[in-house]
């Protein structure tokens, strides 16, 4: 059984199915607070150090809002240039100092394993918000949570499902972490669709093979989607390429739109994307013409991110059993609670 209280969350490899189950149970209990039906002040007085050394919208803001929704304060640092890392300070020193100012830290950084290195200097739990092309454990958890819910609506489960992952599978940390969480389940079929140069790294393929799941690897989108229960699209991770010209070679290679979806997917295939989708004309991997499609789960994914991050804060700070004790009413007009 994973010990959450006081622990870092750095990699999906530190989790097992029991731990995931615990996180999802707590996440479900966060729903009324996220919908502003009621409040909890369980983390009143606590401080989150939200350190984002790489661009982010959803992950950074949802970590911050998740902490606020539990009653805590958020102290944010964004960008290398505004921190002493740009003066040559080590991750260890930064961690030693900032961890005395905070009760928990969420961190994103462009280098693989940097968040782990930072955590070694931290006196408080550190949650990995993405370390280079390596891992994105909280995204993978919210993705799996979304898959469970979406398939659950149709009476299906994760075991036995078929997922097609499309795009930059080499640099996409979300697909690396999600694949490993899926490996913990039974009888998964993976169809991995990418240009050959952007294929899923061998270490992830080894994990899939060692767990006995089925894998098809291809560089063709059409014709390889018809069995997918989940279609997980990704953006070309341009920031990981040596130049924009290099990234441009792959932009727009795979595009999903209404017509391709209707022609090549099952009618109940769920469409996912960690976002941001690259909506520029030369990329447009997920067309706006699917925006009102009921199987488009991308915004439900983002909503679920709030619940998962609230759960992780409650668990790592050891307050998951006290949420209700610190409840209070919402005093303002709340559109969300009207839903
Ligand atoms: C992803 C990331 O940062 O890895 N975004 C996110 O956190 N939702 C995917 C991406 O940037 O393409």
Automatic annotation (TrEMBL):
<keyword id="KW-0665">Pyrimidine biosynthesis</keyword>
<dbReference type="GO" id="GO:0004070">
    <property type="term" value="F:aspartate carbamoyltransferase activity"/>
</dbReference>
<comment type="similarity">
    <text>Belongs to the aspartate/ornithine carbamoyltransferase superfamily. ATCase family.</text>
</comment>
<comment type="function">
    <text>Catalyzes the condensation of carbamoyl phosphate and aspartate to form carbamoyl aspartate and inorganic phosphate, the committed step in the de novo pyrimidine nucleotide biosynthesis pathway.</text>
</comment>
<feature type="domain" description="Aspartate/ornithine carbamoyltransferase carbamoyl-P binding">
    <location>
        <begin position="8"/>
        <end position="148"/>
    </location>
</feature>
<dbReference type="GO" id="GO:0016597">
    <property type="term" value="F:amino acid binding"/>
</dbReference>
<dbReference type="GO" id="GO:0006207">
    <property type="term" value="P:'de novo' pyrimidine nucleobase biosynthetic process"/>
</dbReference>
<keyword id="KW-0808">Transferase</keyword>
<dbReference type="InterPro" id="IPR036901">
    <property type="entry name" value="Asp/Orn_carbamoylTrfase_sf"/>
</dbReference>
<dbReference type="GO" id="GO:0006520">
    <property type="term" value="P:amino acid metabolic process"/>
</dbReference>
<dbReference type="Pfam" id="PF00185">
    <property type="entry name" value="OTCace"/>
</dbReference>
<dbReference type="InterPro" id="IPR006130">
    <property type="entry name" value="Asp/Orn_carbamoylTrfase"/>
</dbReference>
<feature type="domain" description="Aspartate/ornithine carbamoyltransferase Asp/Orn-binding">
    <location>
        <begin position="159"/>
        <end position="315"/>
    </location>
</feature>
<dbReference type="InterPro" id="IPR006132">
    <property type="entry name" value="Asp/Orn_carbamoyltranf_P-bd"/>
</dbReference>
<dbReference type="Pfam" id="PF02729">
    <property type="entry name" value="OTCace_N"/>
</dbReference>
<dbReference type="GO" id="GO:0005829">
    <property type="term" value="C:cytosol"/>
</dbReference>
<dbReference type="InterPro" id="IPR006131">
    <property type="entry name" value="Asp_carbamoyltransf_Asp/Orn-bd"/>
</dbReference>
<comment type="pathway">
    <text>Pyrimidine metabolism; UMP biosynthesis via de novo pathway; (S)-dihydroorotate from bicarbonate: step 2/3.</text>
</comment>
<protein>
    <recommendedName>
        <fullName>Aspartate carbamoyltransferase</fullName>
        <ecNumber>2.1.3.2</ecNumber>
    </recommendedName>
</protein>
<dbReference type="GO" id="GO:0009220">
    <property type="term" value="P:pyrimidine ribonucleotide biosynthetic process"/>
</dbReference>
<dbReference type="InterPro" id="IPR002082">
    <property type="entry name" value="Asp_carbamoyltransf"/>
</dbReference>
């Amino acid at each position: 059984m994973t010990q959450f209280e006081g622990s870092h969350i750095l990699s999906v490899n530190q989790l097992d199915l029991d731990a995931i189950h615990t996180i999802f149970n707590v996440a479900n209990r966060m729903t009324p607070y996220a919908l502003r039906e009621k409040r909890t002040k369980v983390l009143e007085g606590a401080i989150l150090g939200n350190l984002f050394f790489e661009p982010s919208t959803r992950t950074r803001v949802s970590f911050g809002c998740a902490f606020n929704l539990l009653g805590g304060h958020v102290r944010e640092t964004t960008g290398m240039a505004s921190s002493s890392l740009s003066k040559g300070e080590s991750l260890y020193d930064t961690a030693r100092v900032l961890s005395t100012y905070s009760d928990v830290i969420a961190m994103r950084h462009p280098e693989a394993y940097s968040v782990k290195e930072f955590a070694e200097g931290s006196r408080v739990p550190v949650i990995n918000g993405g370390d280079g092309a390596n891992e994105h454990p909280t995204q993978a958890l919210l993705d799996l949570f979304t898959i469970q819910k979406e398939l659950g609506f149709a009476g299906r489960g994760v075991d036995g499902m078929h997922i097609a992952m499309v795009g930059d599978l080499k640099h996409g940390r979300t697909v690396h972490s999600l694949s490993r969480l899926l490996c913990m389940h039974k009888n998964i079929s993976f169809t991995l669709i990418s240009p050959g140069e952007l294929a899923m790294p061998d270490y992830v393929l080894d994990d899939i093979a060692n767990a006995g799941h089925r894998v098809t690897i291809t560089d063709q989108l059409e014709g390889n989607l018809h069995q997918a229960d989940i279609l997980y699209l990704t953006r070309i991770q341009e920031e990981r390429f040596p130049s924009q010209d290099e990234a441009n070679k792959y932009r727009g290679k795979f595009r999903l739109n209404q017509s391709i979806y209707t022609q090549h997917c099952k009618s109940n295939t769920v469409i996912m994307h960690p976002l941001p989708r690259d909506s520029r004309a030369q990329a447009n991997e997920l067309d706006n013409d699917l925006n009102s499609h009921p199987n488009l789960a991308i915004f439900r994914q983002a909503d679920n991110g709030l619940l998962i991050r609230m759960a992780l804060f409650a668990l790592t700070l050891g307050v998951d059993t006290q949420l209700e004790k610190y409840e209070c009413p919402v005093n303002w007009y709340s559109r969300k609670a009207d839903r």
